[in-house]
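The instructor's notes for this session suggest beginning with a concrete chain rather than abstract definitions. Hand out the sequence below and ask the class to guess, before any prediction is shown, which regions might be ordered.
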Amino acid sequence: MGNGKSRSGQNVCSQFLPEEQAEMDRLFDALSSEKSNPNTSPRSFSLKALKSRIGEALPPEMVTRLYDGMRRVDLTGKAKGPSESVSQEQFTVSMSHLLKGNSEEKSLVILKMISVTEGPVKAREVQKFTEDLVGSVVHVLNHRQELRGWTRKKAPGPSPRVQVLAAQLLSEMKLADGKKLLGPQWLDYDCDRAMIGDWVFRAHLIATFLSVIVHRGFRLHLALNLATLVPERRVDQGQEFESILDVLSVIYVNSHLPREQRHRWHLLFSSELHGHSFAQLCGRIPHRGPCVLVLEDHDGHVFGGFASCSWEIKPQFQGDDRCFLFSISPSMAVHTCTGYNDHYMYLNHGQQTIPNGLGMGGQHNYFGLWIDVDFGKGHSKAKPTCTTYNSPQLSAQEDFRFEKLEVWAVGDASGQKLANSGKSILDANLDARVLLELTGRSRHSQGLREIPDE
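After discussion, reveal the predicted structure:
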């Protein structure tokens, strides 16, 4: 497959197609033509040349990691240490492994990006590499103006979301006995190449992030579809606001959605824009297709759920096993269905005998996530975990209060509009509907409409 030779005539392990290899050759020519170091051989490049080429597209520490990973590649198996500069063969093999390689090949370069020594590396070194990698993705997407409407968290110093996502990715690493690498007590644990390879295979965002920093750092023209990594953010005109979510939060949640729904997020409801009203929430989210709901409680915990089907206002549970709950802060995690029951989604309003509110998982009065009809109140009950999603308590307090709530439709618009869904205007305007019912007046259209097909 691809072109197995560089122009120097030596066989190297390249998985690039001919046109892709031609671009790699042109890039190497540009890098090696910069005579920044008189001791560098004509067919190699220095760290200074690489920094000059990439500029400010990547943080300096990631440029150095890329350079070290390349120059530590040993093509002969006889090298006594890293080379003084990067040869064309080293460059081609490294780029091939990073962009086209399997998890084992990627792990080889990752180990060389982490440490100059052969053999295992400490878990704390892998942790620092992961934080650098996650931070570099946000950096390069921002530098190339490809955040697609989302923002970085504006805070001095290292972004806490970078550290939180890095910790989540590192938690996917498994020890030899199958246990996960969790907690600070494991930071001195030795991670060998087999563990790193298994980790790259398991935590698929690692390979994706490596591809992003190489493609966007070098401005490669090779195919890279960012649409399913960073969805387009759509907010109706004149309704700009600062979301609870930053780009890393969106990337993480989006990566767990069905692939066909990852390319676009369209705001349906925001408490900041549409008010602290459960009736407004119920008027804006039903029959709009799959949605992501996210809120921030008064203690700073950020969490939510994915509704795989359109919300409907009715006293029965709805949805299917594609639904999940998630947390963003203080830690990132996704909690999927257990199969124990089918209490995936619940949305009810205006009933006197059963709970009114929005819930996901668990059961009445004991939901994994509950938004009460008394807007601003909710609960997350899990002793020890939610039966539907196996999720822990998501909020800081079991019964919590919140001010910020958002609901985003994901994927393409469902096309289910009131005009063609057989619904009255009162179905969308719950404030008007409740007022009508309180005055004792009946809805003349109720019962006269056709029963919709299930």
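Then share the key points. The mean pLDDT is 86. The longest strand covers residues 399-410.
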